[in-house]
Design a protein that fits this description.
nine-stranded mixed beta sheet, 20 helices, about 575 residues, alpha/beta, about 35% helix, six-stranded parallel beta sheet, single chain
C-alpha cells in the first residue's frame, strides 16, 4: 500500500548539518515529493501534525548483527519506536552466506558467529531455511521468506567466505592460490548482488584461544580480495581491530593502511580508543587517525558514545572466554545448571579458577573488581548493588575475588547477573569525534549480545543527552551524525536527507518526549526446546512517527504492522518481479 502523507508544522532538520527550518513535507509513492512552508493538502492525504516536533531523515544503525535474529524476530522491535529506518549488518566478518557444501563447515560458521556475537545457536541452525549456498541466493531467500520494517543492508563477511571456500581448513591454515581465487569469485558475486562491501576481523579469539578464520589470512589473501573490492567505486571495507583482548590494534591498523591505502579503498575501522582502559596501549591510534585525516585518506574510525557490553551472565556471556578467564568460561560452556553449581562448590575447580584468574588479560575487568557490579539476583539472597571489590571486603576473611564470586553465584543462582562500569575518556572527546569528518558513530552492536545489552536506542541518548540535557551539540549536528553522514559513507544516496526525490525514510519526534528507555527482559527468543528464552529490549522512545519508504512503521505510539523495508537495496516485490523475469 502506498501512503500519501503531508507532515505539517514541524522543524525540518534535513540531515546535511544545516540549521532547522520551518517546512512541511509531502510524501507520495514512497518518495519525498515536496519540502516547503505552508503546503496545502492534496486530495485525501493524511495530515500529520508535527507542531512542536522535529522532522528528520530516518536514523541509520551503523553496526548491527541481525543476520540470524531477524529470522525469528522480524518485527525487529523496538527499532521502529526509535525512528530507525536502516540497519547495516554482516559486520566483523560474520555473515550467514556464502555456505560451504560441507555441512560441518556450515555448522562451524554458525558456531563461530553464535559464540562471538552471543546469538543462540539452535534457532540459528533450525529456523533459517538454509536454502542457499551463494550470497545472491541468500539475498533472494531473505526476499522470499521475510518481510521487515527497516531497510536491511549488509556486508559480505570474510569469515563466511573463507569457510565456504576452504571448508574446515579455514580455521587451521593459510589459503592456497586456488582457494583465494574461489574467495574472490564469491566476493565479486556478493558485490554484484548488492553487498555493501567486505567486512573482516582481526580481533577475535575464542574461549580456547583459537583465532577466527580471518586472522589466519595472509597478506596475499587480503590483497586479492581488496583488488576485487577496489574495482567497485561505491563499495567499502569494514574491519575490526585488536582493540580489546590482546591489544594488537596499532599493528593491525598499520597492516590495514599498507593494504588499503594503495588501492584507494574507503575503510571503516574499529576503532579509535575511547575507553580509559585502552589508552595506555592504543593511544597511538589517535595519532594515526589524525594523520589519515590530514592526508585525505578515506579511513573512517568507528566509535560509539555508549560504553559496550555492560552486563554478563553465566549462561551465554563470552566475556569470560574473551578475557582469557578460561576456567570461569567452563561455567558458561557447561549446559547443565546442576553441574555448574557443583563446579562452583568444588574445591578443585575453585583452585583452578584462582590460578586461571592470574592469566586473564591485563586490561580485563577481572583485574579491576571495583568495576564488576553484582547487578541482579535470581534467588533474592543478594547482596546486589555492590561491586565485586565491595563483596570481597564485606566477607571479612579477604577471600580471593574468584572465590567471592563463586559464593555469590551459589547464593544467588545461575540466573544472577553482573554489570560492568566501563569509563569513557570524556564526553568532550565524544563530541570531537562526532564533529570529525573521518569518524563514524552509532556502532551499537544491536542484534548481538542480547543478554548483555540492547543497543537499540543508543542514538536517542545522543539527542536527549548530548543535545537536550547537556547542550554539548546542536540538533543539526546530532541528526547529521545518525542520518546524512552515515548515508554518505555507505553510498546510500536514496536516503539520509530530507529533500524531494529521496526515499521517504522520515522520523517525527518531540525532543522533550524521547528517552533511551531502561532495558527490560522479553522472552521471545526460541531456545530450540519448544520454549523461549530472554533478551534485552527497551520500551519505545517513543517517536511520534517513523516512515520507511513512505509507509508508517511506528505510528500513534505503536508498531504499525507494516513491513516496507528493502533488502540490499531492493524491495521484496521488486526482487521477486526481477526473479520472475
Amino acid at each position: 500500500m502506498k501512503f500519501n502523507i503531508l507532515i505539517k508544522g514541524g522543524l525540518v532538520v534535513d540531515g546535511t548539518g544545516a540549521a532547522p527550518r520551518m517546512a512541511d513535507v509531502r510524501v507520495s509513492g514512497g518518495k519525498i515529493v515536496e519540502v516547503a512552508p505552508n503546503l496545502e493538502r492534496q486530495g485525501r492525504e493524511r495530515i500529520v501534525d508535527a507542531t512542536g516536533c522535529y522532522v528528520t531523515p530516518g536514523f541509520i544503525e551503523t553496526h548491527n548483527h541481525y543476520d540470524a535474529p531477524m529470522w525469528w524476530m522480524p518485527n525487529l522491535e523496538p527499532m521502529s519506536g526509535y525512528g530507525i529506518t536502516t540497519s547495516v549488518n554482516g559486520n566483523c566478518g560474520f555473515a550467514a552466506a556464502p555456505v560451504s557444501d560441507d555441512p560441518k563447515a556450515r555448522d562451524a560458521m554458525v558456531k563461530i558467529f553464535s559464540f562471538f556475537e552471543d546469538i543462540p545457536e539452535t534457532p540459528f541452525k533450525e529456523i533459517l531455511p538454509w536454502d542457499w549456498k551463494s550470497w545472491p541466493e541468500y539475498r533472494r531467500s531473505m526476499q522470499r521468506h521475510l518481510r521487515i520494517p527497516v531497510n536491511f543492508e549488509f556486508y559480505a563477511g570474510h569469515i563466511a567466505i573463507r569457510l565456504a571456500a576452504m571448508g574446515l581448513d579455514a580455521t587451521k591454515r593459510a589459503a592456497t592460490q586456488e582457494e583465494i581465487a574461489r574467495m574472490c569469485a564469491m566476493l565479486e558475486e556478493a558485490l554484484e548482488a548488492g553487498a555493501l562491501g567486505l567486512s573482516s576481523n582481526l580481533l577475535d579469539y575464542d574461549g580456547q584461544g583459537n583465532p577466527v578464520p580471518s586472522l589466519l589470512a595472509e597478506d596475499a589473501e587480503f590483497e586479492a580480495l581488496l583488488d576485487v573490492l577496489a574495482r567497485y567505486e561505491n563499495k567499502t571495507m569494514e574491519i575490526v581491530l585488536g582493540v580489546f583482548q590482546r591489544y594488537t590494534g596499532v599493528a593491525d591498523m598499520e597492516r590495514v593502511e599498507r593494504l588499503c591505502k594503495p588501492r584507494g579503498i574507503r575503510v571503516m575501522w574499529g576503532g579509535i580508543p575511547t575507553l580509559n582502559m585502552q589508552m595506555a596501549r592504543l593511544a597511538a591510534l589517535q595519532d594515526m587517525h589524525k594523520r589519515y585525516r590530514e592526508e585525505g585518506l578515506e579511513f573512517y574510525t568507528a566509535f560509539h558514545h555508549v560504553p559496550p557490553a555492560t552486563t554478563a551472565n553465566f549462561h551465554t556471556s563470552l566475556i569470560f572466554g574473551q578475557t582469557n578467564n578460561l576456567v570461569w568460561a567452563e561455567i558458561v560452556a557447561e549446559p547443565s545448571e546442576a553441574k555448574k553449581l557443583a563446579m562452583l562448590a568444588d574445591p578443585a575447580w575453585r583452585a583452578r579458577a584462582r590460578e586461571g584468574w592470574t592469566k586473564v588479560y591485563p586490561q580485563s575487568p577481572w583485574n579491576f573488581p571495583e568495576v564488576v557490579g553484582l547487578s541482579e539476583s535470581e534467588s533474592g539472597v543478594g547482596p546486589v548493588g555492590l561491586s565485586l571489590a565491595d563483596l570481597v571486603k564485606q566477607r571479612g576473611d579477604d577471600p580471593h575475588p574468584s572465590d567471592a564470586l563463586a559464593d555469590w553465584v551459589l547464593d544467588n543462582g545461575i540466573g544472577a547477573q553482573l554489570a560492568f562500569d566501563f569509563f569513557r575518556t570524556s564526553e568532550p572527546y565524544m563530541v570531537e569525534l562526532f564533529r570529525d569528518p573521518r569518524a563514524i558513530g552509532n556502532i551499537s552492536d544491536s542484534g548481538a549480545h542480547g543478554q548483555m545489552l540492547c543497543g537499540i536506542g543508543d542514538h536517542i541518548d545522543l539527542l536527549a543527552g548530548y543535545v537536550r540535557d547537556k547542550k554539548l551539540m546542536t540538533i543539526e549536528e546530532a541528526v547529521h551524525n545518525i542520518t546524512g553522514k552515515l548515508a554518505d559513507f555507505f553510498h546510500l544516496k536514496d536516503r539520509g536527507v530530507i529533500e524531494a526525490g529521496r526515499n521517504a525514510d522520515i522520523v517525527v519526534f518531540n525532543l522533550e518526549e524521547i528517552e533511551r528507555r531502561e532495558k527490560i527482559k522479553v522472552f521471545d527468543v526460541p531456545d530450540g526446546k519448544g520454549a523461549r528464552t530472554w533478551r534485552y529490549t527497551r520500551p519505545a522512545a517513543p517517536v511520534r512517527l517513523t516512515l520507511v519508504n513512505g509507509e508508517p512503521t511506528f505510528d500513534r505510539g505503536h508498531f504499525s504492522g507494516n513491513y516496507p523495508g528493502t533488502i540490499a537495496g531492493f524491495s521484496t516485490d521488486e526482487a521477486l518481479a526481477r526473479a520472475a523475469e
